[in-house]
Amino acid sequence: MEEGYIKFNCKLIKDKPPEKSDIIEINKWRKKLYILSFIGMYENGVGYGNISIRYKSNFLITGSATGGFDELNEKHYVIVTDYNLQKNSLICRGLINASSESLSHAVVYECSPKTNAVIHIHNLKLWNKLMDKVPTTNKNVAYGTPEMAEEIKRLFNQTDVEQNKVICMGGHEEGLIFFGENLQEAGEIIIKKLRNL
Question: Do the bridges between strand 9-14 and strand 89-94 make them parallel or antiparallel, or are there none, so unpaired?
C-alpha cells in the first residue's frame, strides 16, 4: 500500500511553525474528524486524511505523517507558499513536510477563490455511495499527483463541483474532498452526506 507517501518534490524551508492562535479552529475540526476516524492511521502505520485553511495568500495544512496523532500542535502544521504542477513541486515553510495531498488542496483554492477550507477524509462506505453521484475524478488517476490536481481542475471546468463542494477521488479508494467558505461549511457538508448514508 502506497497510501500516505509524498509523490511530489517537496522543498521544506525550515522556519518557525504557524502561531498557536492560527491553528485553534483548524485543530478543533481536525480533532472532530479524527474522533470519527475520517482522519487517522491504518494498522500498517500509514496515516490518512488531512485538512487545510487559506492563510493570507497561501494555505496552512496538516503535515505529512500526522494522521495517527490524536492531538496536533502548531509543529504539526505547515504553510504551503508555492507549487508547480508541471514540475510536480511544492514549497512549504515550517518544521514538517506538507501533506501528500497538498497539490489537490492547492488547486481547489486556485479554482475556487471563495473557498477558505478544504478537508480530505477517508470513508469507504461514503466513498462507495458518492462514486459517480458527485463529481468524480478519473479512476486511473492516483492521489497526490499532478494528474489528480489536473483532474480536480477538470471537475471545476466541466461539472457543478463549485456548487456541491464535494469531490469523490475515483482512483483513491476511500478518498473524498469537501470544501467551503470556512471549516464550518465544509464540515457540515460531510455531516449532511453522512446522514444520507
Answer: parallel
